[in-house]
Amino acid sequence: MKSKLSLILLLTCFISFNCKKYFEAAAPNNFSGTTYNYLGTWNTNGVPNYLVTPSDTVSAAETNFINSTLPEGHSAVTAHPELFSASSSQANLNLTQKSTVYISFVHDGSGNNNVIGFFTYPTANPPTAANQLGGVTIIFPSAKSSGTNGFLPLGSKVKIGTFNAGTSIGFILLQSGWNPTTSTVNTSDLHFATIDALNPETDPTLQRHAILLNYQGKTLVCFEDSNRQSTGTDSDFNDVIVAATIVPAP
Questions:
Q1: Is residue 25 a part of any domain in this protein?
Q2: Which residues are CB-neighbours of 123 under 8 A, at least 6 positions away?
């Protein structure tokens, strides 16, 4: 009887410890006070009614570059450690002159139906917690391509606005945030941001959720859409990729 009681106590401690580890690793940053804005409306499939024309061309060469640089299921941390060093830039756009910014959808490598949004902040004063964000504006309510059971064409392009010098633009991915049944965005889903401190991992070395790549003058923002402390995450950073076009404004 004594040995059975000891076994029960041991199992209870083991389960409690592992559950604690799981919930600590998966505890989201608190975005409950965040205001969400929208650039316009969309159809029932989540395709924005505010896409600009012409759209961007996503060439076979660009797709090959993405697939060879960030192959499916392979850790980008292992393949490109230079993108994750302490000195490497986080995946935000820092504007040094007044500019108009366009964002294009160029790659979908996820099984999730994710949402992509953006936020702005003074370059010299980045937010360190979610409650410091002024708001998040949704760019693509459904970042799911027509080739992967979605409806958003690759190259779909949105003008997100004109911003003054000294402004930085960060991005947010809402994991599985698009609800195809109601054609709405669920803003309570897990958020991953281009600022490491806003992400849910308790290990700061695993908080990076977006990296920047350059392809023939294009700035590519490449997202990882799963908690990097969870079991089975691949850290391939190809789950959603968008391209930024920055045009100097008068």
A1: no
A2: 94, 95, 166, 167, 168
State the amino acid at position 10 in one-letter form: L
- Answer whether residue 11 is part of any domain: no
Residue 38 burial (C-beta neighbours within 10 Å; 0-12, 13-18, 19+): middle
How far is Cα 184 from Cα 145, in angstroms, rounded to an integer?
17
The predicted-structure confidence for 34-69, as pLDDT tens digits, reads as follows 999 999 999 999 999 999 999 999 999 999 999 999
Asked if residue 23 belongs to a domain, the reply is no
Q: What secondary structure does DSSP assign to 120-184, as a single string?
A: EEETTS--SSGGG---EEEEES---BTTTT--BPTT-EEEEEEE-TTEEEEEEEETT-EETTTTE
Specify if 155 maps to a domain.
yes
Cβ neighbours of residue 49 closer than 8 Å, sequence gap 6 or more: 40, 41, 42, 43
Q: What is the pLDDT of residues 84-104, one digit of tens each?
A: 876 566 899 999 999 999 999
Q: Output the 3-class SS for 1-49.
A: CHHHHHHHHHHHHHHHHHHHHHHHHHCCCCCCCCCEEECCCECCCCCEC
How many structural domains comprise the chain?
1
- Half-sphere exposure in the Cβ direction for 106 (13 Å, CA): 29
- Domain of residue 91 covers 30-248
d(CA 151, CA 47): 7
Give CA–CA dist 223/124, Å, rounded. 24
